[in-house]
Amino acid sequence: MGRLSGETALALAWITALVASLAVLFIGEVLGQTPCVLCWFQRAFMFHLTIILGLGLWWRDGRVGRYGIALALGGGAVALWHMGLYVGLVPERIQPCTATGPSCTDDNQLVFGIPIPLMALTSFTLIGVMSALSLKETQK
Q1: 113 pLDDT band (50/70/90 cuts)?
Q2: What's the whole-model pTM score?
Q3: In-domain check, residue 86
Q4: Alpha-carbon distance 138 to 140, whole Å?
Q5: Cystine design at 120: which of 79, 106, 133, 135 (Cβ 3.0–4.6 Å)?
Q6: Using one digit for the tens of pLDDT, what is the confidence trace for 99-108?
Q7: Residue 93, domain extent
Q8: Could you tell me the pLDDT band of residue 92, with boundaries at 50, 70 and 90?
Q9: 140, 134, 138, 18: which is closest to 68 by C-alpha?
């Protein structure tokens, strides 16, 4: 089995960010699910990943993975916090959601039986790993 090239790793990171961005737009705009506070923060990281990684591929900038790692770490931290809320590890008294908005922890956080925070955490992790792998080639 051959090694993953830097450009291929960057392309996989970008595809993951693009699919995740389109998925949350579908969930919000087509399925009509209003995002909670933490979902908005995660979107802010994911949408920018799509643009920055895409431009890095377009311009063949092998060092753009640095920004992919930074944004994936930020988004992953929010997704991890969200997952902690969802599974009940974070106390209710510090939940960011209000009674008037969508909840960060209810059943609306499921798509096909999978929690949205888990999908986001998985996406950010994959993007971070692929971004890091894309840098290995530029450091030689």
Answers
A1: confident
A2: 0.88
A3: yes
A4: 6
A5: 79
A6: 555 666 666 6
A7: 6-138
A8: low
A9: 134
**Cβ-based neighbour number of residue 7 at 10 Å:** 14
State the Cα–Cα distance between residues 33 and 27, nearest whole angstrom.
6
Counting the structural domains of the chain, the total is 1
Helices (H), 59-100: 65-87
Read off the tokens for 2.
């051959």
More confident residue, 105 or 80: 80
Q: How are the residues of the chain apportioned to helix, strand and coil, as percentages rounded to the nearest 5?
A: 70, 5, 25
The pLDDT value given to residue 22: 97
Q: Compute the Cα dihedral for 54, 47, 32, 80 and give only its sign.
A: positive
Altogether, the residues listed in the chain come to a count of 140
